[in-house]
């Protein structure tokens, strides 16, 4: 790997990767091996950050199950020798001209041009969208009783808040009405905190409240039903269609908007909760550079929210325009094992199910991977592995002038920690469950906990970000050798 030392104001690359997170590192590693030797010196990855965090481990840090130092690596160790690391931040995209404008070290502009580009910018944490938290992460760290596992210091503070929680107090956990990294994380920390409260002897007389902006605790009926059993057994109060909109740190009051079935705010129906501990599931958005791109009149790169268009419609539009209704329950405490908030169906609306090449709908030399794409999958590291399996042959085919033939099926996975020893391993596509192992993964399991805690971190560092891990499809076929493809895909 070569550090960014570009003296000229113009530089050209065969392939530029924007973003050095999970997807960006995986693509740079993969293509440093795949491109012909004459082209291997023509790859650049743009990433200003010097550190790379294993984000799935932040929940474990917040529960005292991992140390923060176990989650961090130097970015340079993850970038191949044959790839230029450009540490400058992107100012703007000019896809029609195959050009990126970056901030140079003197505050001016530097232009990079490319033959092909992969956008892997991930999501931006947006605590500032909540009234009372204007400074984002800084506000979260400064507000008494407020915490969030979505960044390292926030995870450390979450553990401190859990340890100082007292008997008879209220712990409130929220899930936002925006895109989010790992949609299962806000409820994972809810279950883990409740487990720790019991161990510390402070659960009795206390309230544990989970407020989600969705109509169900989880979007896949099989896992939603299993999680509702956990909620009922543990005495957790669940409220649906509530979105955290305001935090009054001095009064320790959290205000939630009431949402209708399309996710729109119902005016005049706010709900307030007093809290001693408030965990915020981080609101997220596309990164600022892509949001700016979305505002340009001639923009064809992103949708209106700033997500790279590799589908005809954004996820939000798909949900709004479908006939799929998750629940008519609003602000009702749910205490049941088989919720009515999810239709008892194995399939999502058809217009959400659209296999993707991950190629831009307008610019055929641009691809996207990970959270920045407007694909309808859950935004997780597991999704990146399966996306890489589709993006790799498709990008190579585009480079060779061939047709794109490989589709991403929408696979994602979420190991849902229900306590410090058991995991519900949710694996799914927009069509429903897509399980790997030969047992019912909706049941809390010690085996899947061990996978989450001890196997997945090295799988991430040694295989996924190195471009070697393309998802569990081969394992799935091995565990289901006599099952038809349809049966395996249904998770049966």
TrEMBL record:
PROSITE patterns: PROKAR_LIPOPROTEIN
E.C. numbers: 1.8.5.8
Predominant location category: mitochondrion
Organism: Meloidogyne hapla
UniProt subcellular location: Mitochondrion
Cofactor list: FAD
TM stretches of this protein: none
This protein's record includes keyword Oxidoreductase: yes
GO cellular component terms listed in the entry, alphabetical order: mitochondrion
InterPro entries: FAD/NAD-bd_sf (IPR036188), FAD/NAD-binding_dom (IPR023753), Sulphide_quinone_reductase (IPR015904)
Annotated protein name in UniProt: Sulfide:quinone oxidoreductase, mitochondrial
Recorded catalytic activity of this chain's protein: ubiquinone-10 + hydrogen sulfide + sulfite + 2 H(+) = ubiquinol-10 + thiosulfate; ubiquinone-10 + hydrogen sulfide + glutathione + H(+) = S-sulfanylglutathione + ubiquinol-10; a quinone + hydrogen sulfide + glutathione + H(+) = S-sulfanylglutathione + a quinol
Protein's job: Catalyzes the oxidation of hydrogen sulfide with the help of a quinone, such as ubiquinone-10, giving rise to thiosulfate and ultimately to sulfane (molecular sulfur) atoms. Requires an additional electron acceptor; can use sulfite, sulfide or cyanide (in vitro). It is believed the in vivo electron acceptor is glutathione.
Alphabetically ordered keywords of this record: FAD, Flavoprotein, Mitochondrion, Oxidoreductase, Quinone, Transit peptide
Top enzyme category: oxidoreductase
Residues annotated as domain FAD/NAD(P)-binding: 13-137
Any one biological process term the GO annotation gives: sulfide oxidation, using sulfide:quinone oxidoreductase
GO molecular function term, any single one: sulfide:quinone oxidoreductase activity
Family stated for the protein in its record: Belongs to the SQRD family.
């Amino acid at each position: 790997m070569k550090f960014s030392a570009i003296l000229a104001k113009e530089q050209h690359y065969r392939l530029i990767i924007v973003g050095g997170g999970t997807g960006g590192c995986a693509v740079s590693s993969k293509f440093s091996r795949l491109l012909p030797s004459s082209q291997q010196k023509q790859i650049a990855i743009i990433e200003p950050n010097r550190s790379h965090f294993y984000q799935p481990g932040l929940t474990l840090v917040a529960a005292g199950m991992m140390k923060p130092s176990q989650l961090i690596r130097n970015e340079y160790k993850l970038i191949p020798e044959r790839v230029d690391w450009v540490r400058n931040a992107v100012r703007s995209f000019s896809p029609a001209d195959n050009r990126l404008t970056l901030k140079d070290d003197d505050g001016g502009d530097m232009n990079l041009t490319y033959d092909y580009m992969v956008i892997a910018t991930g999501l931006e944490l947006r605590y500032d969208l909540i009234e009372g938290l204007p400074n984002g992460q800084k506000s979260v760290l400064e507000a008494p009783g407020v915490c969030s596992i979505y960044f390292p210091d926030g995870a450390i503070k979450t553990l401190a808040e859990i340890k100082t929680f007292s008997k008879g107090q209220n712990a409130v956990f929220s899930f936002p009405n925006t895109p989010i990294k790992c949609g299962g994380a806000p409820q994972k920390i809810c279950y883990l905190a409740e487990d720790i409260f019991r161990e510390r002897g402070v659960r009795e007389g206390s309230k544990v409240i989970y407020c989600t902006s969705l109509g169900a605790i989880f979007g896949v009926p099989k896992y939603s039903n299993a999680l509702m059993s956990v909620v009922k057994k543990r005495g957790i109060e669940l409220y649906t269609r509530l979105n955290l909109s305001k935090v009054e740190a001095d009064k320790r009051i959290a205000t939630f908007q009431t949402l209708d079935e399309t996710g729109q705010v119902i005016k005049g129906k706010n709900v307030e909760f007093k809290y001693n501990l408030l965990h915020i599931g981080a609101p997220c958005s596309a990164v600022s550079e892509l949001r700016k791109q979305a505002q340009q009149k001639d923009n064809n790169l992103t949708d209106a929210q700033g997500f790279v268009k590799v589908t005809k419609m954004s996820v939000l539009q798909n949900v709004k325009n479908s006939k799929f209704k998750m629940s008519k329950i609003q602000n009702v405490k749910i205490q049941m094992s088989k919720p009515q908030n999810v239709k008892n169906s194995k399939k999502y609306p058809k217009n959400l199910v659209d296999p993707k090449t991950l190629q831009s709908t307008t610019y055929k030399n641009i691809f996207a991977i990970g959270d920045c794409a407007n694909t309808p999958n859950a935004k997780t590291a597991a999704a990146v592995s399966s996306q890489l399996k589709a993006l790799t042959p498709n990008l190579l085919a585009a480079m060779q002038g061939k047709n794109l033939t490989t589709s991403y099926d929408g696979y994602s996975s979420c190991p849902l920690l229900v306590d410090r020893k058991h995991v519900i391993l949710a694996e799914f596509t927009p069509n429903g469950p897509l399980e790997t192992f030969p047992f019912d993964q909706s049941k809390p399991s010690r085996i899947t906990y061990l996978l989450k805690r001890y196997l997945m971190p090295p799988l991430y560092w040694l295989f996924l970000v190195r471009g070697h891990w393309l998802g569990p499809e081969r394992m799935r076929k091995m565990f289901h050798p006599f099952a038809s493809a349809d049966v395996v895909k249904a998770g049966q």
